[in-house]
Model the fold of this input.
Amino acid sequence: MANDDTGATQPASAPTAQARRRHILVIHGPNLNTLGRREPAIYGRVTLDEIGARLAERATALGCSLTTAQSNHEGVLIDFLQAEAPTADGVIINPAGLTTTSVSLRDALSATTLPIIEVHLSNIYAREAFRHPSLLAPICRGQISGLGWRGYLYALDALVALLHEGSASVEV
Done:
């Protein structure tokens, strides 16, 4: 509570969107818990924990916070998203094998109305044809594919910049 010029108590004003710390959700889909061991020629040798540490370091430098989740179960990811989205400003997601199959995850992401950046460690367009379509791409602000673990950092940089510019919305 704050006092106005008359001495009356007024509610303290909420911080503006620009002034408050940005909060980003990072979602890792099925099998990403095996990074570093699983097909290193395709996915690299960096583990999910190492990616998380690098993201946390970058988030600190950018003045934002992260909440992350990884699951091999679609419903767990949807539950996480529905629980956390109301306090978030954006989403970075590597849907992994759910990219081409999960209408439910797509619908849950779309319902948040948050800006989303889709990340893939490998270049899904240079791989088998069944990996090419993304059900999520039409609701995402952008997609980063084929740049390995660095794609997550690029996604965080881009999402925070878009949020600061106020241009994170997507016309669908």
The CA atoms of residues 55 and 153 lie 6 Å apart. The longest helix spans residues 150-165.
